[in-house]
Design brief:
Order of helices and strands of chain A: EEEEEEEEE
Strand content of chain A: 25-35%
Largest interface: A-B, 55 and 55 residues
Radius of gyration of chain A: 16 Å
Helix content of chain A: under 10%
Oligomer: homodimer
């Protein structure tokens, strides 16, 4: 295999949350995470056309505080869990630190969505949003 | 909001598929897509540690043939579906063209996984793999 190109990701918006750092964030949204704002940059707001309150969406974030050189972790940070490849976990530490968050749209105010619950910390870049489909 | 940094994504591997171009690919894996190989570069193979045949995983691809300037589409390419923001769809055309694929691991041969079904075409870069969790 020849070594591939790398690709440039441009954030489409940001998470604004009461969670200010990783240590206070729950591991998953369903584990007591708060609601948060998703602020979309004006040039991408057409991409939200027809999004409605009550919709379930998948928010994909760039976990900018993650360590990209990590390939194995103790799942959920519990030392007694055996070392496991990051690709079989939801660890934020991984070569391309993408976060996947299934959330509900609670409010829409122009380029600002209120969504939740979500464990992403304040200032986390958002890179994509997708419809939920049956899989 | 100040304009954010962009981020560099480095593929961790590639899809090898009998699907050679977008026009022959089904829209979702469950719509008649084939199985495919996922070839991981040697430097990332530790990230697969403990992955087993039968596991369900989420493969995240970079849809390198997508058009990144598209913000609205007719969902599923059907003209009678009203124009909709790409963030409420699974269109491959979107600012950061990430593909989300929930697949089953069918075979493991060192750095090559056989996975499926998956609608990604041959040569699609893989950028992340995650555990499926109840959400």
């Amino acid at each position: 295999m020849t070594k591939p190109d790398s690709y440039q990701i441009q954030p489409i918006g940001f998470i604004r949350s009461s969670l200010k750092n990783r240590s206070e964030a729950p591991r998953q949204g369903a584990e007591g995470a708060p609601n948060a704002f998703l602020d979309i940059f004006p040039e991408y707001s057409d991409g939200l056309d027809r999004v409605a309150v009550g919709d379930e969406i998948i928010v994909i974030t760039w976990l900018h505080r993650a360590r990209r050189e990590v390939l194995k972790v103790h799942p959920r940070g519990v030392g007694s869990n055996p070392l496991t490849g990051v690709f079989l976990t939801r660890s934020p530490d991984r070569p391309n630190p993408l976060g996947l968050h299934r959330v509900k749209v609670l409010e829409i105010d122009q380029g600002r969505l209120t969504i939740g619950p979500i464990e992403a910390i304040d200032g986390t870049p958002v890179i994509d949003i997708k419809a939920v489909i049956a899989e």
